[in-house]
Write a structure and sequence with these properties.
By secondary structure, the chain is an alpha+beta fold. It is built from 12 helices and 4 strands. The longest helix has 27 residues. The N terminus and C terminus are likely disordered.
Length: 280
Amino acid sequence: MKQDKMYLINKIFNSEEETIWDKDKEKYYVSVVDVVRILTNSSNPRHYWNVLKGRLKEEGNETVTKCDQLKLKAQDGKYRLTDVVDIEGMFRIIESIPSKNAEPIKQWLAHLGSERINEVFDPSIGIQRLIEYYRNKGYTEDWISRRIKGIQNRKGLTDAWKEGGIKEGYEYALLTDEIYKTWSGMTSKEYKNFKDLRKEPLRDNMDSIEVTLADLSEEVTKRLTNKNKPKGLKENMKVARQGGNVAKRTREDVENLLGESVVTKNNNLNYEYVEKKKLK
């Protein structure tokens, strides 16, 4: 088997039999048995997994307890309940398998861990890594500068929300959706589905006008929040709509001049996802 750090991962995710995308949870799930088969070349990967599962249970490994079951299409064409895990669970299982085929991924994970620790001591390393990532994706220097500034501004907005008693996570998402829904007519999740995105960031797949409207809506929301000091979710929702409405009016003006919608299905992917009907 080719010993490339990404070879096994690409093999798993490019195979129609081994992964499934959950739109509701916005997660990939991977068939544990198929991961075991690829890593071990076992003639009976299901038995191998059952033995490994027993050993992991004895060791108190939480990976096993996090396994879900879905009906996936097997190689014989029949649908069977199969143990599946998310991506974090997949890596934990890979780390538990004593196979030379797993070594490239284990080394890659160790390298990533080392990089993140280095970034704790020198955050500029992480910024440079982000810049190189976008350059490799073909983004312009101007776009990259605006994207990094947008990340900084977003942090300013969430800090303002935090001061107003907003809880990180779910409530941040509710307020963000209110902003997006006001100016674009869609929540962030609906917007991603509109552009046929999965894990990819929405902002990274907007054109320049869409990004400008998104930035404007959040910048206005941030300034209004800092000025008016709203407390609690209800008051902050009102401010979020105000920020979104500024971008909405701007969008309407631009669309009237252009004679077309500026909210587009366009994204920066080189292909479209093909939905795989794996559940019976």
